[in-house]
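Would you be willing to look carefully at the protein I have copied below?

:::
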Amino acid sequence: MMATTHALAGVVLGTVVWALVPEAGMLPVLAAALGGLFPDFDLYAGHRKTLHFPVYFSALAVPAVAIAALNPTTATLAVALFLAAAALHSVSDMFGGGLELKPWLGTSDRAVYDHWNDRWIAPKRWVRYDGSPEDLALALVFAVPPVLVFDGITETIVIGAVAVSGVYVLLRKPMVAIAERLVAAIPDHLVDHVPERFVRDLR
């Protein structure tokens, strides 16, 4: 799924908590959005393995949520929401497509790495690939609660995330065609400096 979809899923978690504990402020909502984004910071280095921890994030989130429930401060809620959103991201990637650059072809058997069992989890492809129409539909659904609850800058950011998602969906497949041309034009001695996942399927 798109990074924006994951971030918006985190914002939904944050919105629910804000509705229950508004005095905690917006920091927990921001932490939830960041937690939703965080695993994808490994995009250029072992994507869906380096920072994706479906088991470990989930294991850390459980006690963090329990602590936040017993002592709901801004800090405890922020930590719990960051971990819960990161866990949700890591787990939900198994329901998307694989790691290949053309995931609509369904050729990869790698969705997300399970460090606990030292193996790749195969993609279920309920959301066929990041940037698919169903991915955009999910982003739209996740955007509804925060848009209804918040206004001002938060609402603007959420709407902006949906707009970015829409543009990405339109460009998803053309970007791969452009990448194929660019990779073909890169001299062999420079290819070693390009992350393997971006050239593996193109050369």
